[in-house]
Amino acid sequence: MRIDYKLSDKFDFGLFIPMSILFAWGLAAIYSSTYNHPTAGGNFEKQVIWGIAAFIIFFITYSLPPSTFKSISIPTYLFSLLLLIVVIVIGRKISGAKSWLDFGPFGFQPSEIAKIGTILAMSAYLSRINTNIDSFKDILFTLTIGFVPVALILLEPDMGTSLVFVGFILMLIFWKGISLFGLFIVLSPGFVAIAALFGFYYFLAALLIVVIFLFLFRKDLFFSGSIFALNLAAGFFANSLFNALSPHQQQRIQSFIDPNSDPLGAGYNTIQAKVAIGSGGFFGKGFLHGNQTQLQYIPEQWTDFIYCVIGEEFGFIGAVIVLVLFLYMFLRILKIASTTKDEFLSLILIGILSVYLIHYLVNIGMVVGILPVIGIPLPFVSYGGSSLLVNMFMLGIVANVYRNRKNYT
Amino acid sequence: MKSENFASINRTTIISGFILVLFVLILFRLFQMQILNQESYEEKSADNSIKGIEQIPFRGAFYDRNLKVMVDNTPAYTLRITPAEYDPKLNPIIDKILGANPGYVASILLKNKIYSHYIPIRIKRGIDFNVVSWLEENSEHLPGVDYIVEMQRGYPFGIRGSHAFGYTKEISPDKLEKEKDYYKPGDYVGHNGIEKQYEKELRGVKGFNYVLVNSKRKEIGRYKNGTQDVTSIKGKDLVLSFDADVQKVGEEEMKGMRGAIVAIEPKTGEILALVSAPDYDLEQFSYVTSKEFLQELYNDPDKPSFNRATMSVKPPGSTFKLLSAIAALDMGLINTSSTFYCGGGFTFGRFFKCHGAHGSLNVIHAIEKSCNTFFYNLIYKIGLDKWKEYAMKLGFSKKTGIDIGEEVAGFIPDENYYKKIYGENWPRSIMASLGIGQGEVSVTPLQLAQYVALIANDGSTFQPHVVKGYLDNNTKQIIPFKFPEIKTGIRKEVFDIVKEGMFLVVNGAGTATHIRMPDINIAGKTGTSQNPHGKDHAFFICYAPAEDPKIAIAVVVENVGFGATYAAPIAKKLIEAYLKKETLNDQKKKNENTQTKIAGLNFAD
Q: Which residue from B61, B109, B366 is spatially nearest to B236, judged by alpha carbons?
């Protein structure tokens, strides 16, 4: 084995630099949206402190022995389940969801820790030598590991985060190499569930499609029948789930379909966000000169709507540079994941990539008005301590895997 | 070793494809929003955050014909409440401090509920300074309550002019609906009289200061440092044809009476004074007008809000004899040598009394003595329709078009009118009374003034008006308004004869010799309008100086008796106020001239 003494061989600048730019840019945007805000004035300083902590965590994680991750996977998972139960009992409510735990002056979201715990636990299970992803038992077990925290998070209720979980759970199964039929079993209930939300006839049509697929796969009748039953149950479950959603979440889904139907209510944020970004134009209005931002048209802009600040003040150019930085990071993580020979670490990396990717898609999709308003932050950019710490910890894992990539070849 | 590689090339490709598709999708969306639709978003963003704050310009002032200020603007304190910040529990306290009835504040707030809660609502204008200091002291306990200094109408020179000037008042919902491009709720607009008629000139043009507001509509700074602001343009200062002194004398003379005075400059149709008595205090309208005051105004049996000068109609009495004389002379039915014999009355179906037995007299002396018999005879010669035709030539039975808005046309009957009531054989005896201005004939004081102005100026004048023009804001030159000329087409000789009679009324052995003046020759005609409901109405129309008429006046005093006794002395006072001032002013000028000459000489020496 050849030993390379260059720093870039041990440390992936291709991850670190884009992340640092995104974080710094996020700080600038937080500053712009809060420096003359009556209640959020100190957020810039707070984020700087969180940032220092996050970078320290990044480097610690980076330098850990790679075997650590496997050994902490089950304890972390169980611990995060415990926290998720605790938060439902004694959590602090923020905008309708009981998702925060307070420790003195600090608050954090257990669901952030649960992301790591779930990714680690699922990856650990999937990478066992005798796991067969196409066996009914292993799929069921994998999905159970994944969906127990989802169920707990839905009880908070925090739809955005559950969505992130669903996303990376599916990605992990996909990455493990599920067969077409296995994928069908996993995806079809979701498909039927979404169709059920649109109405009864969509539900029927979706079931019909499922039946046609079942015929095409030519599995035995009992097996096909139980899958059909699963789909049927998913449809009914989706409907009762929608009804169980808090009114503000239901309204958000409705106002996404037509934001102008309620311009001062649920659709308000979407309209103002689009106005902010659209009015930025090619070059933007300049740092600290975006009137939508400076006049506080978008509530809590430094969290989930931070991308509007960049779109408005730095224009198309700024917004696209952010996209490109993310794109580069994503492809970089994907490359490391696909070249790593250790299945467990590869799965973890895909889980992490999925978390980033879903946050990026849902967050930016929301502010540019192609997805409903689902409040999840933009990684590294949005204000918020616990999500920054967790994101940096996860990026630390990626850097760690890069550092040790040659040990597994 | 590729096959050992756990992550198949396939799955990696699918995921990178997915990432790239998302990237392109969002990129396209950004391009669409920030490049293609940038302008429309920009517009929305500007609408959002830039607010124009209206700058209400000074309303134009009123000057009299000698450029004395009659109406101007004075600063006053207005109490306002911003509902979004205000606690309705404070209502009773505010009511009390304003000295208003309980529920006053609540009712105003309720009325304005439809507007944004962040817009301050004017609760009361013209609040006392005591209230202002109280507000200052207690401001911390009064969230949402403040005061501003606003300009309001001031009448500093003791001229009431209530019916001519009119007042300003909060815009009515109807008018707001019609002119919502310019006006906003709470704007003050001219409500009647000159204020209403010349609203467009007086109001000026609103300016706008552009400010940035945040999402709570709270002002947080100027937009582009005020470079985009639009300066307001001050309203035009109107120059009225009024003479402040004449108007003041008229108002004082009419105090405690009911009636009207209209004085006109015959050559121009410019109204020198317009008084309707009783009048009311326009100061009361400067503020949010109290209900009690309005109630009082409308319930007063003397109807002070009613403009008697243009709206009240009465039979004109003997002043109408001049009309018959003009008609008969112009038609060539009589001349100065035609006479009628007055033996104390006239018989047509029944006996019509004269107030004396004047013997044989011609038209001049018939006017001088106001002989009924002469004019009973005359109207039968003229014929009813011809008589009406001349009445209309002299401005009766139609609106004059005066520029203060409301007026009525009055009524002059013709043959058709009586045919409709009585049929073809209507009793011709009715005509006798009409000949002396009694019966079914009604005119306004303004029409009478125009009538005597037409006589004084030999049959022509201009449409009566109270505004001459406006002062150019920069040059201070008067820019005159144009008014249509009125021409009767009646020969000058006719007027000469009638005027001779009118001269004798005051200066001969006529009915108003008691107002004769040594230095100014007045020509006039008395009238007494019979009133079946009480004492007669006194009328007097006149002009002066007789040789070169500068002022023509109609005076109507209700329910007092003879015109000569009650109305004529008032007209005399006005003439003195107008013409003697002119001579006084001329003398002053002469003195000044000589003084400067002397000074100049001294300097030269």
A: B61
